[in-house]
Write a structure and sequence with these properties.
- There is one protein chain.
- This protein is mainly alpha-helical.
- The chain is built from 10 helices and 4 strands; from the N terminus they run αββαααααααααββ.
- The chain has a two-stranded antiparallel sheet with strand order 1-2. Strands 3-4 form a two-stranded antiparallel ribbon.
- The longest helix is centred in the middle third of the chain and has 39 residues.
- The radius of gyration is 22 Å and the shape is globular.
- The chain starts with a helix and ends with a strand.
Length: 301
């Protein structure tokens, strides 16, 4: 229990610190560009048109809504983080209790190969994360919609309880799970990619006789996690777009955004337009090739 509480406190602190970054990332993901491109230089010194980065975007938000404006949607996100940690911890604890109730002297686990152990541990982690995602996705939807209100200056989603009532009244239960499928798929694929790649590197590339092999294995886990998150980023993008799509907010309606019939249609549209990595980077953002900036609508076409 103490470990769970410490995880919740640490997670809440990191959530508060990282919230402005997520807020701006979401606005970029939905295509909102309130500031026009400016002429700058890339890493090689060549002059190119660049889009405003995180700090310029943050200054723009502070100018309009003040510093508190950078924390829109924080309350439902904190709820999601806290509840998600509790659910994840409870599922893992149930697995651990099941292991302890096995017959004493059972050496089946010891006989498992290292690959089978990784598969079993990853499967358990997948179940724990999936349960947490199912329970917390409604709060995730509320968080995103609170953020996207910045585009149309709406106040439709003003609190957690009021947002729950609004979504249920207008969309029913399914409204709380808008964008759920691509999010779950992205999490599962990312988890398996990360753990399998780390296992291959630790088993066939690293030598246990090497010095500091433990630190190197931890580093490989972090690198493979970053690599997996990059590969599965389109799932996150599509999920966030579907969570705000056609929900009555200007940021999720034409002309700011198409009305996607399904997340597959959203994926195909983004792929066709070359926008599958939109919002992936908030620094050194270059202007999209072959597109024009519409000043009145504050987006690219």
């Amino acid at each position: 229990m103490a470990d769970t509480c410490s995880q919740m406190l640490l997670g809440s602190g990191l959530t508060v610190l990282s919230h402005p970054l997520m807020y701006i990332k979401v606005l970029v993901q939905v295509g909102h560009e309130p500031l026009p491109p400016s002429l700058g230089r890339n890493l090689f010194g060549r002059q190119v048109y660049q889009l405003p980065g995180f700090f310029s975007y943050a200054k723009h938000i502070v100018k309009i809504d003040g510093k508190a404006g950078l924390f829109k949607g924080l309350a439902p996100r904190l709820c999601a983080g806290t509840i998600g940690t509790l659910v994840h911890s409870r599922v893992i604890q149930n697995y651990q209790k099941a292991d302890k109730t096995e017959e004493p002297g059972n050496s089946q686990k010891e006989d498992l190969s290292s690959l089978q152990q990784v598969v079993n541990e990853t499967a358990r982690e997948m179940v724990a994360r999936s349960c947490a995602t199912i329970v917390t996705h409604p709060f995730h939807v509320i968080t995103l919609r609170c953020m996207v209100q910045f585009i149309g200056r709406e106040t439709k989603y003003s609190g957690v309880f009021d947002s729950v009532v609004t979504i249920y009244r207008e969309e029913g239960i399914l409204g709380f799970f808008a964008g759920f499928i691509p999010r779950l798929l992205g999490d599962v694929i990312s988890l398996w990619l990360c753990n399998m790649l780390a296992h291959l590197i630790n088993t066939y590339v690293l030598d246990n006789s090497m010095s500091h092999v433990g630190e190197i294995k931890n580093c490989s886990q972090a690198v493979t996690g970053f690599f997996a998150s990059m590969l599965t980023y389109p799932f996150l993008l599509v999920s966030n777009l579907m969570a705000v799509n056609n929900c009555g907010l200007a940021g999720g309606l034409p002309p700011n955004a198409p009305a996607y019939p399904s997340w597959v249609d959203c994926w195909r549209t983004l792929s066709r337009e070359g926008n599958m990595s939109r919002g992936n980077s908030l620094f050194f953002r270059k202007m999209p090739a072959g597109k024009m900036y519409a000043v009145d609508q504050k987006r690219f076409f």
